[in-house]
Amino acid sequence: MRSLLAIAMIAVSLVLLELARMGVAVTSVEAGRTPVTLYAQPDATGPAVILAHGFAGSEQMMQGYALPLARAGYRVHAFEFLGHGRHPDPMSGDVTSVDGTTRLLVDQTLSVIDAIGPQDAPLALVGHSMATDILARVANRRPDVGPVVLISPFSQAVDATTPADLLLISGAWEPRLRAFALGAARMVDPRAVENQTVGADGILRRAAVAPFSEHVSVLHSRVARAETLAWLDRAYGRGSDVAILPTGWAILALLGGLVLLFRPVARVLPVVQQPDRRLSRGRLACVILLPAAVAPLVAVPLNPSFLPVLVADYLGLHLLVFGGLQLAMLVFWKVPMGRPSGRGLAVLLLGCAVFGLALDRYAANFWPTPDRLVVIAILTVGAVPFMVADAMLTAKASVLRRLALRAGFLASLGVAVALDFEGLFFLMLIAPVMILFYLVFGTMGRDTARRVGPLSSGLVLGFVLAWALGASFPLFLA
């Protein structure tokens, strides 16, 4: 029954996700050294749209907007900022200064627009999160920019007159960004309310709210995407009859189906009997609290900074200290880790690769550029002992014990941020990545560990964790 449910989820999701792409040609081009993906129907002549992602994002994360706009006849140019996705060059500059990293990203966006060439109609700009500040500044410098759509917006470049044609979309669960969007609308009309279009002296504003959405799910909100299409259609005098498909739910169902399907697949592995030596509550508390306290106290003062990825070198050291301590205690207490299983390694690695392929095609970048391979290799040194210890602790643990173990690691990252907020601020972005990793790869790893022992699972998941972190976090050159 579980297998049939998983197969049905995967099949229905794939149909929906491929329907969303139907009729759209996806072409990879370059604007200088910037990778650009063009989404357009064959021979499309509609207005050009520049589509930009947020921090730690990629052009794949913006497909929820790119595909319906392309099916409506627009020519959508989605590009990747410096240091993100498959861009070969790192970010640089001062991330806290408008004249630092922000200026470099504005210049990059202007170069992409120049590479596209002159257009018959003003350009449309659509961006999410970090990109909202970049695009607002671009709109203020380019006379050939028309409608602007800022998703999860915040920018000091938005004032009472620029951008002149502006839609601001916030998720219902983004209170601070909702307040900013409404404030931008009230610069034009003090009586403006959410989901109302207001105008004065040639300035047009609307602060729209996407229900049941936060900072990531707003990228697949059907309301937000319909608002975007309607705003562009109004600006260009067009009429679009395009179905906004539930791609967000389809992605979740596809990825969830792959995880569900892995358990019956894992049954091809032989069962290797392992001694059941579960930790007492006292030892469990020790294996959670001691590494959580020691890892930041050791790693923060050392805080290496030689890798070209934000906080990657620190994270590798933190993983090594945290996982090394746990592993040492588990070995001392004679908790079994088992022996490597070639079949177990192969099956789990294949399952993770299939998941990664699906993620990369429909949701977010998962495949690294060559420059990131060194980062992944160094992160693996810390991630492997961390995940081997995690597999030993969670293979036969209850849900509550697994939650306590994972919460201990996240708490240790929080302590590290508190000890060096300025230097390790970006560690806070690791939390959602780790939660997703535990839910997906951790579940598949546990299915494997229960069959062939924790060691094979930990070895694979250590490599996959290093891969996921190395592939997703921005390259940065100080």
TrEMBL record:
Keywords: Hydrolase, Membrane, Transmembrane, Transmembrane helix. The chain crosses the membrane at residues 242-262, 283-302, 314-333, 345-367, 373-391, 403-419, 425-443, 455-477. It comes from the Bacteria. Residues 48-160 form the Serine aminopeptidase S33 domain. GO terms for molecular function: hydrolase activity. Gene3D superfamilies: alpha/beta hydrolase (3.40.50.1820). Pfam families: Hydrolase_4. InterPro entries: AB_hydrolase_fold, Carboxylesterase_BioH, Hydrolase_4. The keyword Flavoprotein does not apply. The keyword Transport does not apply. SUPFAM superfamilies: alpha/beta-Hydrolases. This is Alpha/beta hydrolase family protein. It comes from Jannaschia pohangensis. The lineage of its organism: Bacteria, Pseudomonadati, Pseudomonadota, Alphaproteobacteria, Rhodobacterales.
